[in-house]
Structure formats: structure tokens, C-alpha cells
Amino acid sequence: MRRILNYWLSIIFILSIIAIGSALIAEYFFYLAPCKMCLKQRYPYYLIISLTLVFYLFNRKKNILLFILIEIALLYGLFYAIWHVGIEQNILLGPDSCSGTLLKITSLQNLKEQINNQAVVSCSDIIWKIAGFSAATINSLLLLFLLIFNSIFIISNYHGSKKNT
User: Fold this and answer.
1) 131 contacts: CB under 8 Å, gap ≥ 6
2) Distance set, CA 10 to CA 44, 92, 102, 117 (Å)
3) What's the predicted TM-score (pTM) here?
């Protein structure tokens, strides 16, 4: 466990690159168009990669602020990932822009706007599965794993620094 925590920043950085790389390969090489919820789930990975690079280039030491910002990004991503799984399982409703349904039509202009703003891919459609798990489910599990270990890292470092003072 101590070894994992020693390399935690590298692990979270590499897993973020793998997650984004997988999503981009699925989108651009296998032509699997993402829905709006899928796109929102990518933001934390982009942020984690960017923050890690910025902190590494300018600071070169592990800063607790970096891990707190990563924690916030992971919470954001986990929120959208779990919501997306709920939409796929017909447990939760998605945002109007993700549902593929039209709201009350009041005019021809209103109808036109709704059609133009509709998602090409509905968030409730499961585009691909691995071992019976949708991409949103796999992403939820990955984000949960990262959140747990990042929390452990923050607590162990904070607790360790309090002991030394």
C-alpha cells in the first residue's frame, strides 16, 4: 500500500491518460459518437492531466493542493458517471439536451430550435460494453477507485504531517 501511495501522482496521471486515450480511440477510430454525458465525464481527466503537468513543471514536489484539486475533479466526474449509469438503466432522468425527446412545441421556430439542439446520441443508449459493463459503468468504477485512493493519499499525508509537527 505504501508503494502505491509513493507513486500515486504517476498512477493517477497514467490512468487519466489511458481513460482519455480509450475514449478518443473509441470516438475517432471506431466512430462511436459520445453523448453529452460522456463528454462531461472526460473533463476531470483533462483537468488532472493538465494540473499534474503544471504542478510538475513549476513545482516538482507533491503539493497537497494538487491532490485536493484532483479530488474535486474526481467528485465532479463521479457525479456525472453515476448519473449516466442511472440514465442508461432507466433509473434516473437525463438532462433535456440528452434525452432525444421534444418538449412542448409552441411554434414552428420552437420546434426548429429543439430539433437543432437535440443530441445526436441519446444518453440512455449504451453504445458499447466490455464484459457486460457499459463505458459509463467502467468509468464510474475507475473514478471511484481513484477517488478512494486519492482520499487515502490526502489523509495519510495530512495525518503524517500533523504527527511530525
Assistant:
1) none
2) 16, 35, 45, 40
3) 0.81
Nearby residues of 132 by Cβ (< 8 Å), 6 or more positions away: none
Alpha carbon distance 154, 142 (integer Å):
18
How many domains does one find in the chain? 1
Domain with 147, as residue range(s), is 2-164
CA 118 to chain centre: 22
Strand partners, 134: 129
- Residue 41: CB atoms within 10 Å: 26
pLDDT tens readout for residues 58-97: 876 667 888 999 999 999 999 999 999 999 998 988 877 6
pLDDT at position 165 is 46
